[in-house]
Amino acid sequence: KVDESINTDIITLPRFIIESQKQHPKAKGDFSLVLNALQFAFKFISQTIRKAELVNLIGLTGDINSTGDQQKKLDVLGDEIFINAMKSSSIVKILVSEEQENLIYFDENEPKYAICCDPIDGSSNLDAGVSVGTIVSIFRLLPNSDGSTTDVLRCGKEMVGACYAMYGSSTHLMLCMGDEIDGFTLDNNLGEFILTYPNLKIPSHNLIYSINEGNSYYWDDSIVTFVQKLKTPDQETGGKPFSSRYIGSMVADMHRTFLYGGLFAYPSDRKNPNGKLRLLYEAFPMAFLVEHAGGKAVNDQGVRILDLQAEHIHDKSSIWIGSADDVDKYLKHIGKL
Ligand code: AHM
Ligand code: MG
């Protein structure tokens, strides 16, 4: 007897890409080559992280990366996996990686796409088995460009796509190719990402704030007052205070925010005058995804993240991101709404 509980008509990522391509008859299939390389990198990194403890990969290499952090072996491996996957895409010309000081240029590839990525974001959490992820922004090269930093030192709104993979209890992929955002879950037996959250919308509000409050000593008074306000029940919050949730891994904190709603922030402070998170491969892709899911993302001054432009590939930005109503609360607080 056939087990009727098994769905035999699932939408895998390759099927999803083919079907979306049909809706854009002018598409030449270039973007699918990029996605194919990306999903391979995500699967490879996912497997590597899951095996890490067993094959004794945990530990420091002793090197310092371009933004001054100590690199771990998994950071190096994740970076290598990512670079090789983009190289083999045939179509990604340049790559900005958090782990590489300079832009990587692939001589052999066609000059079509530029990718910016944090191969393993939240890596300080790795040894504790906490969820980490890979964050990616995708730009099409400027007309007639052969690939250079000017292709990525642009406004975030010029991106053509963004995604992140989160290596948690399952491996999830959240993807936006310019329209909606769609979520996939990796089926390890099939080796395929399966569509599990079609056309995901972020809730317009939730009583959750996610911020490293240990930094409050270094914050401006305005931020201290705002966070205090979130913890003080009022009529707007239905008489309840916001709850605090902070994993310390942006992908995991944002994944929860996409599904449950609320507000995630990493403001600037006296230690990090421009915030901590990087514009090209942390703030931009998350802002792109959140806006396509109906949310908002702004910096400390209330400027839309996607209107910002990086001057250097590793530039940082403050960020307030999440449910539209909760970001609006911050905007009202600073008098920008
Ligand atoms: P990383 O790219 O070096 O891993 O740093 C980025 C991470 C984010 O994932 C996370 O939101 C943030 O750093 C946490 O920082 P902190 O430990 O200062 O709260
Ligand atoms: Mg990182």
Automatic annotation (TrEMBL):
Pfam families: FBPase, FBPase_C. It catalyses: beta-D-fructose 1,6-bisphosphate + H2O = beta-D-fructose 6-phosphate + phosphate. Residues 202-330 form the Fructose-1-6-bisphosphatase class 1 C-terminal domain. Keywords: Carbohydrate metabolism, Hydrolase, Magnesium, Metal-binding. This is Fructose-1,6-bisphosphatase. GO terms for cellular component: cytosol; periplasmic space. It comes from Kazachstania africana (strain ATCC 22294 / BCRC 22015 / CBS 2517 / CECT 1963 / NBRC 1671 / NRRL Y-8276). Pathway: Carbohydrate biosynthesis.
